[in-house]
Specification:
The chain has about 190 residues and is α+β, with helices and mostly antiparallel strands. It has a domain of about 120 residues: 2-Layer Sandwich (60s Ribosomal Protein L30, Chain: A), CATH 3.30.1330. The chain is about 30% helix and about 20% strand. A 5-stranded mixed sheet has the order 1-6-5-7-4. Strands 2-3 form a two-stranded antiparallel ribbon. The chain is globular.
Length: about 190
């Protein structure tokens, strides 16, 4: 096996491992379109100093023949904050469809978001029932459904990212339906652009 082929195979395995991540971590997705392919000179650009992590995203480029793979890093949820102009929406048990009342909430959220120069993070959350893996997937579907609804209302997709916390961030800790209903939500947080 040639050195080039071996290096490409190892790079692909490392990239696969990084992309798969740990099943217990919240999943995050950015809907921003990937930058267009650039010439091989990208590798010659200066990089950040060792140990310094970029603020919002990290770009990794792996060349496979003539193709580039661009990995956009996770948004840093800690940099986003609640805003009283944006309200959460709630979901029925084991569902991710936007209910009519919550659609009105999203319409009001979108009206404010259109006037604000902010980036948006939609957090999908679930109640405590079900496995960690199932709830991470359901939280992701809730966050994506919310983001897609906001896009349909005119919010640019490249301003938004999603993250699923599954059942890891409950707002109510009692073990009853009233409490569980509060935990089945899409929570929208924002941060100024720039």
């Amino acid at each position: 096996m040639s050195t080039f082929l071996r290096a490409t195979t190892i790079s692909a395995l490392i990239l696969t491992t990084v992309l798969m991540g740990c099943a217990r971590r919240p999943s995050a997705t950015s809907m921003a379109s990937a930058p267009s392919a650039q010439p091989a000179a990208v590798a010659d650009r200066p990089t950040e100093s060792a140990g310094a992590a970029p603020r919002d995203s990290q770009r990794a480029v792996v060349e496979e023949g003539r193709q580039e793979i661009v990995v956009v890093g996770r948004p840093e949820p800690a940099t986003f904050v609640e805003n009283p102009n944006v309200k959460p929406i709630y979901f029925d048990f084991d569902r991710y469809e936007i209910r009519p009342g919550d659609a009105k909430t999203l319409e009001a959220d979108a009206a404010w978001l259109k006037t604000a120069d902010v980036l948006i993070l939609v957090e999908g959350q679930c109640d405590e029932r079900g496995t960690d893996e199932y709830n991470l997937a359901l939280g992701d579907r809730r966050a994506r459904a919310t983001m897609n609804y906001l896009v349909a209302l005119g919010i640019a997709a490249d301003r938004m990212s999603t993250v699923s916390y599954g059942k890891e961030r409950p707002v109510c800790l009692q073990h009853n339906e009233e409490c569980w209903a509060l935990n089945r939500r899409a929570h929208i947080v924002v941060k100024p652009r720039g």
